[in-house]
Amino acid sequence: MDKVLEIAARILMSHIYIISGWSKLSNFSGTSGYFAHLGLPMPAVVTPLVILIELGGGLALLLGFKTRWVAAMLALFSVATAVVAHTNFADPNQMNNFMKNLAMAGGYLLFVKYGAGAPSMDNAAARKRSSFRDL
Length: 135
Prior knowledge:
Layout lengths: L1 H25 L1 H10 L5 H21 L3 H19 L6 H23 L6 H13 L2
Helix pairs in contact: 1-3, 2-3, 3-4, 4-5
């Protein structure tokens, strides 16, 4: 049962950024325009970095690859996104998005503490290193 929960947690915590990153990649110019509207500096530079964090980080978390590091990055990114894009608290949707991002950051921090779990690339690599030490 633990393995199923660990996989489910990674799927549920990664899918939002995989979908969001893919959407931004598919509409690169629209995303850059939105970032410019938010007042972000150098939106043409920020856009590929955000896509890399969202799509790359989401896929890495899904696979359990460098999970602690990726989860820390996604936690920081979630908080930064909340602060940069969701602080119009007069709009209930923005308040919900702000709180959602903070909740997501909390979930990512659990991956920082506990790692990806048994069924992951991290765990497979650790087992492989361990078997080489036994030789």
